[in-house]
Specification:
Blueprint: H1 2-13, H2 23-40, H3 45-63, H4 71-80, H5 84-100, H6 104-118, H7 123-144, H8 147-164, H9 167-183, H10 187-204, H11 207-223, H12 227-244, H13 247-263, H14 267-284, H15 287-303, H16 307-324, H17 333-343, H18 347-364, H19 367-384, H20 387-403, H21 408-425, H22 429-446, H23 449-465, H24 469-485, H25 489-505, H26 509-527, H27 533-548
Length: 550
């Protein structure tokens, strides 16, 4: 029975449809001959090679223009038939098809096999094929988050491009290499390669290559907190890419412009750009930037108070990351989902996702994602009154920031806010003041409006704790002024609640009631965007209890 099964499988490898010359019988004869060879070993290798070559040619004639649909089968026959040029061609087709379906691990295997076979081609055919294949394999390794291997691939692509004397290929290789080094957190190498890429792009005189390099310069500026410069660069990238109708650069430009809008609390604009990024990523079948755009879309939706939409976006993105074999974005989604649950006062779910984020980040050695998950753990511990747990979590974050400068300016803002709240809760006012001042300075420097408001809110609470009521009111009002231009309802309801409490303490009953009513309105608007009834009730119960106790 096993032998019969093997025979049937051999027949199936010759195609599911009838062949034009001899129809099913022709296909059967080829399979039968191959089967006899496997079963009895009475066919010399030369005959086996000829049969595979003939099988590939029969399939090629039958499928014609549709041959790429059976690229994997054709590649097998041509490789075994020693027609390595055709085998490489159809391995590339197979890899391209898998990549379009986000099957990056499968695509990598096809490209790797093609690279092995290229060595069997005539020397004059190898260089151009190698350049193409290293680019393709590097791209799917980048999409998987295998940045070390991607960097090797793009470096080899650069070597081949230099051998060909092609400035265009050199520029493309340098742009890809620079991007991969950036996501590898190899920032010094990134800067060196970016400068080299810009010089080659200018020599090539290709505006599309230049805009690709400009995108990398914009990312570098984002990473180092040079946001004014990053804004100018990214907007130039978007404008130029639109003018050239160059969608790959437009995709990168709008996606990372969404990131900058998010960083500076411009959530409506961030959502607009992220949605455009998702549409372009879908059109271009770019799984990596698809996840990037979904990341900033979900976070922006959450900051708009659209909690279920944010959860849907982030959970969908996390599922896509797992399915695609992504190692870069996958570790970042759990702590974001944990943040949403914490804001909705489901602390059990928040803790579950935060701990998952820590585990996944450590498993894949993603320091920045681990730091954010640890900040969330510290916030959870502060809420539970577990001081030693918070201290331990924040010490680990500081250690990570010492070792990793990648977007450190941004994530340090979260640590400063969480540390200030931690010390404030435990009555350590001097330490709380120190971290609030750091937070305010960093947030103002980078125009992170949400955290400018948070710094004012925390300072108001500190001043209340020390009996400085007049100063506290000024800071609450400053927070509300910031939130008027940069709405952030998750912060706004807490500021109104705090100011309402202060007004009531000062005997200004009507003003206190007015701010409490506004806090309730914002809470209701957030709750209206929670589709899960149990989660909505959890949020409303907790917030009502807070507001009623004022």
């Amino acid at each position: 029975m096993a032998q019969i099964g093997k025979k049937h499988r051999l027949i199936e490898t010759l195609g599911e449809e009838e062949l034009p010359d001899g129809s099913l019988a022709t296909r059967y004869r080829f399979a039968h001959a191959l089967y006899q060879n496997f079963l009895y070993g009475d066919m010399v290798n030369k005959r086996r090679v000829v049969l595979h070559q003939q099988a590939g040619e029969q399939l090629l004639r039958h499928y014609g223009k549709r041959a790429p649909q059976i690229a994997t089968q054709l590649a097998i026959h041509f490789e075994r038939g020693r027609d390595f040029e055709q085998a490489v061609k159809y391995l590339i087709h197979a890899g391209d098809h898998a990549a379009k379906l986000y099957g990056y691990a499968e695509a990598e295997r096809h490209y790797a096999q093609a690279l092995r076979l290229v060595e069997k081609l005539p020397l004059e055919s190898q260089v151009e094929q190698l350049s193409t294949l290293y680019h393709k394999r590097g791209s799917v390794n980048h999409a998987l988050g295998n940045f070390s291997q991607a960097a090797i691939d793009f470096t080899k692509m650069l070597d081949q491009a230099q051998a060909l004397g092609s400035l265009e290929l050199q520029s493309a290789a340098l742009n890809s290499l620079t991007m991969t080094l950036f996501f590898s957190h190899r920032l010094e190498e990134t800067l060196a390669r970016a400068a080299e890429a810009l010089e080659v792009a200018e020599r090539a005189g290709d505006e599309k290559l230049r805009v690709d390099t400009m995108l990398m310069m914009g990312l570098k500026r984002l990473c180092y907190g040079e946001l004014k410069e990053a804004k100018v660069t990214l907007e130039e990238v978007v404008a130029t890419a639109r003018r050239l109708d160059y969608k790959p650069a437009l995709l990168g430009g709008v996606t990372w412009r969404a990131c900058l809008h998010f960083f500076q609390s411009e959530y409506e604009l961030a959502v607009e750009k992220a949605r455009e990024g998702i549409r372009l990523a879908s059109e271009l079948r770019d799984g990596f930037l698809m996840l990037t755009a979904m990341f900033f879309l979900g976070l922006s939706q959450g900051n708009q108070g659209k909690m279920s939409a944010a959860l849907d976006t982030l959970q969908d993105a996390m599922a896509k990351a797992r399915r695609n074999g992504d190692l870069f974005w996958h570790p970042r989604f759990p702590n974001c989902i944990g943040w949403i649950y914490r804001e909705l006062h489901d602390f059990e779910a928040a803790s579950k996702f935060n701990e998952e984020g820590i585990d996944v980040s450590r498993h894949h050695h993603v320091l920045e994602a681990e730091a954010n998950s640890l900040i969330n753990r510290g916030i959870d511990c502060t809420h539970s009154g577990k001081r030693e747990c918070t201290d331990a979590a924040f010490e680990k974050v500081k250690d990570i920031f010492e070792r990793d400068a990648w977007f450190r300016w941004r994530y340090n803002i979260r640590l400063q806010a969480a540390t200030a709240a931690h010390y404030l809760r435990h009555g350590e006012h001097d330490k709380a003041r120190e971290y609030i001042m750091r937070l305010a300075e960093t947030a103002r420097e980078h125009e992170v409006h949400k955290y400018i408001a948070v710094a004012n809110q925390l300072m108001a609470e500190l001043l209340i704790a020390t009996g400085e009521f007049a100063g506290a009111e000024e800071h609450f009002q400053a927070a509300l002024s910031e939130l008027k231009d940069y709405p952030a309802p998750l912060v706004a309801w807490k500021v109104h609640a705090g100011l309402g409490r202060l007004k009531s303490q000062l005997g200004e009953t009507d003003a206190g009631k007015e701010h409490l009513a506004r806090a309730n309105e914002i809470v209701d608007s957030i709750a209206a965007n929670v589709t899960d009834e149990n989660l909505r009730n959890t949020f409303l119960t907790a917030t009502r209890r807070t507001l009623e106790n004022i």
